[in-house]
Specification:
The protein is α/β, with parallel strands linked by helices and 224 residues long. It contains 8 helices and 5 strands; from the N terminus they run βαββαβαβααααα. The chain folds into 2 domains: 115 residues, Rossmann fold (3-Layer(aba) Sandwich); 68 residues.
Length: 224
């Protein structure tokens, strides 16, 4: 059976931000972060390359309260999305394996994915050093010109009709004019960034909060 999307349920108390950084989620996927007050701090850099829809669910503190709520969320999402969706529990806790086996035997595509923090750090390290390396190479070009920077600027020019497309996307949801103005300006300013979807997402979330910010971002993300 071909999957239409994936749902990732992250045991944040168990994997912290490494469970998020290890994902390869796409825009059509859903990421559900389940946490408690014992692990309530989230490194926002871990959301840098996360383009999927995001839900954050807080569980009460207590023995296995997070595990029980995560499994409850899994059941709810399975009833909502059916068997054409893949379900991934992101946790190093083997206690979830019985749930995985139960639903797998009933035709659902469910798995548990473990996370190795050391490996995630290793995989992330080369990416953080690339901009510095590109800058160093560019400085060696003839005449002191940064060729990589010139190429980036040439590729990052915003389309002439971008403002109109953003306006139309936001008008469909009757977004407040002040919000539309901010988003249009922010997208224009950040369009040249190589990771523009990530930085624009963070800018909108930072301005309007997770709930409203995600709604606004989802309206425009196809135009980016």
């Amino acid at each position: 059976m071909e999957l239409t999307r994936k749902v990732y349920l992250i045991d944040f108390e168990n994997t912290r931000e490494y469970g998020i950084k290890a994902l390869e989620a796409t825009e059509k996927d859903l990421v559900v972060i389940v946490y408690t007050a014992n692990a309530a701090k989230l490194d926002l850099d871990s959301l840098n390359d996360l383009h999927a829809s995001l839900r954050v669910v807080r569980a009460q503190t207590g023995k296995q309260s997070l595990d029980l709520l995560l499994v409850s969320q899994l059941g709810f999402l399975m009833s909502e999305n059916g068997k054409n969706t893949g379900y991934v529990i992101v946790s190093n806790d083997a206690d979830y394996d019985g749930v995985v086996a139960y639903w797998s035997s009933r035709g659902y595509q469910v798995e548990r994915r473990t996370v190795n923090p050391a490996q995630v750090k290793k995989d992330s390290a080369p990416q953080s050093s690339q901009p510095q390396q590109a800058q160093s190479q560019g400085a060696q070009n003839q005449g002191g010109q940064n060729q990589s920077g010139q190429n980036q600027n040439a590729q990052s020019k915003a389309p002439a009709d971008l403002g109109n497309r953003l306006q139309a996307a936001l008008d469909r949801d009757k977004v407040d004019p002040a919000v539309k103005s901010f988003i249009r300006q922010k997208v224009t300013d950040l369009y040249g960034d190589r990771q523009r979807k990530s930085v624009i997402y963070r800018a909108i979330i930072g301005k309007y909060g997770q709930k409203n910010g995600l709604r606004y971002y989802n309206l425009i993300k196809k135009e980016l």
